[in-house]
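Pipeline run #58 for the internal structure catalog. This entry was flagged by the ingest filter as a single-chain record with no existing model, so it goes straight to prediction. Upstream metadata was stripped on purpose; only the residue string is passed forward. Reviewer on rotation: M.T. Logging verbosity set to normal.
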Amino acid sequence: MENIDIIKTAVKALDSKKGSDIEVIRISDLTILADYFIIATGTSTTQVRALADEVEYKLSLDGVEPHHIEGEKSSWVCLDYNGVVIHIFYKDQRDFYQLERLWEDGEKIDITEFLED
C-alpha cells in the first residue's frame, strides 16, 4: 500500500471517530524518520485510544500493520507505519509538544478530499 493510501485511510478513520484538528505534514525533505506525519486530537484519553484503534483496524483491513506502536495506555499514541507516522494526542499533550511548530518547515497536505461528508 502506498503512503497516500495509508494517509487517506487513516484520515477517514480519524474523522469517522470525531478526531479533531487533523493535519498531514510531508516531512520527507526534512528527515529520514518518515515521509509524512499525521497529527490528530482526541477529547479524552479514551477517545485517543478509540481513534488509534480505528486507524489500526481500518488499515489492517487493507493488510497494513503498524511497524511499531507507542503510548497505548496514555494521552499520546504514536502509530508507526514506516513512511507514515500517526500521532494522536489528548489536547493538552498536543498543545505541550506542538509537533506542527517543530515540523513547520514541512509541507502541509490538504486533506479536505479525504474527510467524510
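catalog note: Strands lie at 20-26, 36-42, 68-70, 76-81, 84-90, 107-109.
catalog note: The first strand starts at residue 20 and ends at 26.
status: ready for reviewer M.T.
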